[in-house]
Amino acid sequence: MNRGIVVIPTYNEIENITVILEKVFALNLGLDILVVDDNSPDKTYEKVQEIMDEKRYGNQLNLLVREAKEGLGKAYIAGFKWCLGYPYEFIIEMDADLSHDPKYLSTFIENIKNNDLVIGSRYVEGGGVVNWSWFRKFISFGGSTYARTILGISIKDVTGGFKCFRREVLETIDLESIISAGYAFQIEMNYRTIINGFRVKEVPIVFEDRVAGKSKMSKKIFIEALLNVVTLRLHKKEFMKDKKAVGDTQGQQ
Ligand SMILES: Nc1nc2c(ncn2[C@@H]2O[C@H](COP(=O)(O)OP(=O)(O)O)[C@@H](O)[C@H]2O)c(=O)[nH]1
Ligand SMILES: [Mg+2]
After folding, report:
1. Which of 22, 28, 48, 238 is least surrounded by Cβ atoms within 10 Å, i.e. has the fewest?
2. Prediction pTM value
């Protein structure tokens, strides 16, 4: 067992999963991986099981198969709970579609020493997006600006999904009470981390659009994010009930 683990949610990522596992393990950073698959019709989970049976990566690779597709948020919550059952010190979120370059993992490991949440950010100096349509760029950047303004937080990339939590953060946030199912989940996790007084840092990443497979972004997910930002703000007091809550603390750059 290693000190840190990367949680990779998958839904129909058969074309990407082998490559992403290979890339992460080739770095030899001493990280385990947990793939959380929502019973993908393309049987991504069978591929992972096959690699585990071969012991290609010893005991470093783990798999959690869920019954049905319930959105990214639910998949991550199930994954986090699994990880907290073991003594991991930090837990990393990463997409399966190679949009998140594993080369940044070492930056997360370095920065999580002095922070509680490290966010891979497209919108700080040195970060960026490659190959996205203007529409996706607009939604992502506009979404971050909107959420930042309503929630009164200072982090620049509010919706990104490449990040690293210290286990204490995931033990503190009441995972049962997370209200967001889709990508709003990323916003909610950031907000609840910040209002509980944890140290947050953004590090630059360049995000590249997927080459293989399909995005699961939908209108429904987008609208959920718009509405949930307001709901999150209204629930602020509730989210602060934890003993570590210090009030209006904002994420530091
Ligand atoms: N387990 C699971 N994974 C999901 C679900 N929705 C998306 N994902 C995974 O989450 C990651 C990001 O999703 P993606 O569709 O690439 O989002 P985009 O990059 O914003 O277009 C990918 O690894 C997906 O396979 C879901 O409902 N369940
Ligand atoms: Mg993607």
Report:
1. 28
2. 0.93
